[in-house]
Amino acid sequence: MDKEDRENLLHTAAAAIDYGLASRHKHRIDLDLNAFNPTLQQHRASFVTLTIEQQLRGCMGTLEARQPLVLDVAYNAHSAAFKDPRFPPLTQTERDLLHIKISVLNPPCALRFTSEQELLEIINPGEDGLILEAGGHRATFLPSVWEQLPEKSQFWIHLKRKAGLSDNYWSKQIQVSRYTTESF
Question: Which has the closest alpha carbon to 174: 122, 131, 145?
């Protein structure tokens, strides 16, 4: 994406949050797709991460492309601000301190491995986002999570915990996909 596309997405995310604040979280912003560049109308998956003073304040996203990127970003920005179950709805006071980060996902690719050790050998710290699926459990970590968990084994253990699995969980049915993101 070029600089203008990135700026349009960041503006859209901010507008979606501001609209949500004005409507007391009840309504999502309506967007005219024709007002956006064709690149932003393509179906893509995204995550919107909100921070205040470098502390997480909300993060919501989609793993599969289901709608035009600009709509996905608007929806995820609103959800991160007002629907993330880890936090109360964003307040106007917090809005002035908010930093918005958007991650546009490239399509995930299933990894082939026969053991946990083999999996750890093929993942790329700092580059790969991972999707873990096992026994009805599912979780993902964006590539940016490597900043907090730079060791492969710790990244993997925390991803299993996020999925509701034990640290030592292993099954032949475990599925892992990797993806990369364009983040700004």
Answer: 131
